[in-house]
Structure formats: structure tokens, C-alpha cells
């Protein structure tokens, strides 16, 4: 545009004609920016609607199907709904991946030194954010959003969930894999290609946080950092490892601290902040290592 402006001003056209050209050029630029802005909003809205349909609508549909089993099968409905919903998510991810030809892992895991460094950093961040999330039990503004016992559940059902290998495998392995393939593998990749890495990472983390409203304040920064790690390493295994580690540690920590006081939760949250700062430092150090960029 600057080059076109200089050509117009050096040309032999009349002054009125020059300013008409400039006016047309400016209007064209404004229309192009507006078109790009609308395209951006449509893309973001598309993924929000897609995620809403996949999780919310499919969960409602599955719950209505399982409702025919009666009140005695409330636990089966609760677990079954999540299994079927995430199977639908996984199938959708496979379809979109093949249609858009998306490569989830453009690079390998690297050398043994890189793998150890990145896995260790990811684990520190996962533990740190898991401990940091304990603050949700301390801050009064978030207490009302916590649903410790689902509707219709008995104490025995809650105890089964807290100690079940099936529930552990579902919430700590299967669901994290499905969510990472969707939010980092599909959404982050597509948004980063359309705009830039920063916007892609931030928007994918924001959409993910939108569907975790009760913990959105804690979820967003965690998955901005993990989105950054994924974009730099170009391997989906790192965010999957983070998500599995985070959920697994949350599962164990929830059982050990079920009857903890707010003061203990606050201490765990502060320790988590220290872990997070150390993990971010390791990411920074790995990025700026001269001999070998570890992470």
C-alpha cells in the first residue's frame, strides 16, 4: 500500500485524481480488513459451535437415551454418557483430520536428552497447575460453581468413582486424549495457519476454557503454555502427556485431600505456583540453550 501511495503521488495525474486514487486505496484496504475480520469471527464461531455440538448436544442426546434405564442406572448413565460423547469427538477428529490433511506430529520426540528435558518440564507444569487448581476450594467466588456430587448419586456411587480403575482410565486417559486431539490437534493447528501462532494458541485455549467454565481462570493459562509447547515441538504427544499427568495427579490428590481444610488447600496452591514458575523457567532456559535447544 505504501509503494502504491508513492507511485500515485509521483505520477502526472492532477491533484484531485491523485486523492481519488488514495481514497479508493484506503477504502479497499478497509474493506479487506473488514473481510478478514469477518472471516476470523466466522472461524472462531465455527469451532465454538462445533465444540458445543460435540459435547453439549451429544451429552444431552446420550443422557436421554440412557434415561430409559431408570433411576437405578444413574451411575451407568453418568459414565456411559461420557464414553459415548468422547467416542463421537474422536470420530469427528478423525474425519476433520483426513479432510483437512492435518498432521498432528510434524516432528519426532527428538534426542534422548530432549525427550527427558521436555517430559520432565511438562510433568512439572502438570503437577504445578494441578496443585494451583486447589485454590478453587479457597476462593469464595468459585465455591458455588463446584459440584462435588452429581444429582441422584449416593455415597456408594461417589466412592466407586473415586476408587474405580474404569473411571480413572476414562477421565485420566481416554478423555484427555480426545480433548487434546480436538483442541490442540485440530483447532490450534487450523487457527495458527489462518492467523499466527500467538492467536492460534490463545484462541484454542480460550475455547477450551469456555467449556470448563467453573475452572476457566485456572484452565486458560495452563493451556496457553501447553499450546506454546505443542506449537514449538510440533508433536501432539506432549500436550497429551500433560493432560493425562494433570488429570491423574488431580484424581490422586482429590482422594488424599478429600477432607482437607482451606488452609491446607491454600498451601498446596502456593506450592503449585512455585512449580509453575519453575516449569516456565525451564521452558525459557530450554529455548535459549546455545548448545542444544532442548524444548
Topology:
Elements: H1 2-10, H2 15-66, H3 74-100, H4 112-132, H5 140-143, H6 155-163, H7 165-194, H8 197-210, H9 216-233, H10 237-256, H11 262-287
General description of the model:
By secondary structure, the chain is mainly α. It has helices spanning 2-10, 15-66, 74-100, 112-132, 140-143, 155-163, 165-194, 197-210, 216-233, 237-256, 262-287. The longest helix has 52 residues, at 15-66.
What is the average of the pLDDT values?
A: 79
Strand tally: 0
**Which radius of gyration do the C-alpha atoms yield?**
24 Å
What is the count of DSSP helices, taking H or I runs of 4+ residues? 11
Q: Topology as H/E string?
A: HHHHHHHHHHH
N-to-C CA distance: 39 Å
* Mass-distribution shape: globular
Question: Which key phrases capture this entry?
Answer:
295 residues; single chain; disordered N terminus; globular; 78% helix; mainly alpha
Provide a compact summary of the structure.
The chain is mainly α and 295 residues long. 78% of the residues lie in helices and 0% in strands.
Amino acid at each position: 500500500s505504501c509503494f502504491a501511495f508513492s507511485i500515485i503521488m509521483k505520477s502526472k495525474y492532477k491533484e484531485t485524481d491523485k486523492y481519488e486514487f488514495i481514497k479508493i486505496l484506503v477504502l479497499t484496504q478497509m474493506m479487506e480488513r473488514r473481510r478478514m475480520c469477518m472471516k476470523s469471527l466466522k472461524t472462531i464461531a465455527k469451532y465454538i459451535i462445533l465444540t458445543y455440538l460435540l459435547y453439549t448436544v451429544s451429552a444431552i442426546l446420550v443422557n436421554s437415551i440412557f434415561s430409559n434405564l431408570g433411576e437405578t442406572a444413574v451411575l451407568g448413565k453418568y459414565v456411559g454418557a461420557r464414553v459415548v460423547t468422547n467416542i463421537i469427538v474422536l470420530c469427528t477428529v478423525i474425519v476433520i483430520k483426513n479432510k483437512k490433511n492435518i498432521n498432528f506430529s510434524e516432528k519426532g520426540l527428538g534426542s534422548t536428552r530432549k525427550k527427558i528435558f521436555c517430559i520432565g518440564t511438562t510433568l512439572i507444569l502438570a503437577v504445578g497447575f494441578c496443585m494451583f487448581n486447589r485454590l478453587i476450594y479457597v476462593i469464595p467466588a468459585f465455591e458455588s460453581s463446584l459440584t462435588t456430587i452429581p444429582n441422584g448419586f449416593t455415597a456408594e456411587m461417589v466412592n466407586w468413582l473415586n476408587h474405580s480403575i474404569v473411571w480413572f482410565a476414562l477421565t485420566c486417559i481416554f478423555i484427555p486424549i480426545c480433548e487434546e486431539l480436538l483442541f490442540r490437534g485440530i483447532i490450534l493447528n487450523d487457527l495458527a495457519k489462518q492467523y499466527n501462532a500467538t492467536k492460534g494458541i490463545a484462541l484454542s485455549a480460550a475455547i477450551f476454557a469456555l467449556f470448563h467454565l467453573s475452572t476457566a481462570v485456572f484452565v486458560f493459562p495452563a493451556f496457553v503454555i501447553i499450546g506454546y509447547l505443542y506449537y514449538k515441538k510440533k508433536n501432539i504427544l506432549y500436550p497429551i502427556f500433560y493432560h493425562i499427568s494433570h488429570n491423574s495427579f488431580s484424581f490422586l490428590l482429590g482422594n488424599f485431600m478429600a477432607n482437607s481444610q482451606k488452609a491446607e488447600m491454600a498451601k498446596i496452591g502456593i506450592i503449585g505456583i512455585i512449580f509453575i514458575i519453575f516449569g516456565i523457567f525451564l521452558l525459557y532456559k530450554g529455548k535459549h540453550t546455545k548448545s542444544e535447544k532442548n524444548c
